[in-house]
Every structure is written in C-alpha cells, then in structure tokens.
Amino acid sequence: MQMIEANGAAIPALGLGTWELRGRACARLVEQAIKLGYRHIDTAQVYDNEREVGEGIRASGIVRDDIFVTTKVWTTHFAPTELERSTRESLARLRLADVDLLLLHWPNPQVPLSETLGALARVKQLGLARNIGVSNFTVALIEQAIALCPELLVCDQVEYHPFLSQSKVLDACRRHGMALVAYSPIAKGRIKGNETLERIGKKYGKTVAQVCLRWLVQQNVAAIPRTSRVERLSENLAIFDFVLSDREMDEIFAMATGKGRLTNFAFAPNWD
Fold first, then answer.
1. In this predicted structure, what is the pLDDT of residue 259?
2. What is the DSSP string of 163-224?
3. Known catalytic residue: 47?
4. CB-side exposure of 201: number of CA atoms within 13 Å?
5. Which fold is adopted by the domain 3-253?
6. Which of the following is catalytic: 38, 47, 160, 183?
C-alpha cells in the first residue's frame, strides 16, 4: 500500500470511509476490508458507528498498530474540556487506547479556534491521538490553524473528486507539509457513465471508479471511498497496478466545474 508522509504521519493512500454504515453490516464490512488489505479506516463521532468500527477492527485479527484509524470530533464538542471528554468517549466506543488521527470535523466559528486547537494539541500530548488534523477547512482556516496550533497538523480532509477542483487547498497543504485526504472521491457515484473516465478505464481494463481513485493517489492524495458492498472493496483496492499518463491526468483535472461540490451544509465555511 502506498503511504502518504505528512508531518511525521504515514497515512495509507487508500482507506475505507464509513459514513452511513451502521450496525452489524458496518462491523462486517470493516472486518472484511481489513482482511482484504485495507489499513486505513475512517469514522467520526457523528456517524454513530465508532463502536461497530472497533468491533470490525478487532474481528479482523490484524494487529492494532498495523491499522491507521481516524475519527473526527463533532462541532458541538469544540470547547476545550468537552473536546478531551468526547475524545475519551470515542476511544471507549472504539475500544482503543488511541487513534492514529483525530480531526476537527468542520470549522465552528462559535468557539475560538485558538481554544479548540489548544485542546486538540493537548489530546495529542496526552497520548489519546498519535496525530491531529482538520476537515473541511479552507485555505484561510488552514493558515490560521497552523499559526495557532502548538502541535503539527497532518491533514485537511475535504471533498475532492474530478468534478471539484481543490487546487488551492492542495497547494496550501503541500506548503505546510500536510496531506489532503479526499472524501466522496468518486463523487457519490456521479462519475458513473462519464465518457472521459470510461475511455481511460477501457485502456487499462479498469472501472471509472478505479480511474478516479488512481487519479487521486497519483497526486499523493489519500482517498477514503465509502461502500456498503463487499465486492466494491476489492475493486477500490486494485488501483496500484497501473499509472495514468500526464495527458490523462490533465484530462481528468479539466472535468472540474464551479458546480461540482456535493457536500455543502448551511454551517459550511466560505469555500475557496
């Protein structure tokens, strides 16, 4: 598995996103993914599945230190004492001593960023998280976060796929030694039937989803596709045996439009 180095962290380039996965189905899928070779599992407090993700990790039989586990603190827990308490609750649900990566799930302008980042750094210093980072942060917020955080931030997790340019955020991450982790990397299935991706895929004997994921990891971006189907797990993993040409990469970059964003809540920041 390709690893992405970021401020001391080594993040597996392909992971499993678990948003909307619940109950026994979630635990079984996580277990199956790890047995197939996934080493990066992404969850969050608000997904309400940390317990099942932990069950899947244990059932896989793979040593804990071989699995990179990410969870995310929800915005209502950003006050300093609350952030630490909610992190401990996440660890109790996961039944883990620590997570590999703890992220702030969305910006929350109601709590001063300096306080939240101070608390996030403390959680790392206490040994509850091996690495810390942010999610859904704009370039301006990344710059503020880096200036305010006493510990290194290792990533910004954002929506990224061929229909949405993230060149500004990617540049900012690279400037600061951070990784970009892409959620919704296959645009929630909207890539299906795309002529450009189909043509490129045909050349390599790959699906449009595999082309999409390859395009991301070839930029040194980590991708965390979510799937509820076991057969998709193997397909998503089979992206390390071909290389897209520069021209093909550019063709996919050219697909981005101003209307490509799929995740945009009322509380979202002013995107770049």
1. 86
2. TB--HHHHHHHHHTT-EEEEESTTGGGTTTT-HHHHHHHHHHT--HHHHHHHHHHTTT-EE-
3. yes
4. 20
5. TIM Barrel (3.20.20)
6. 47
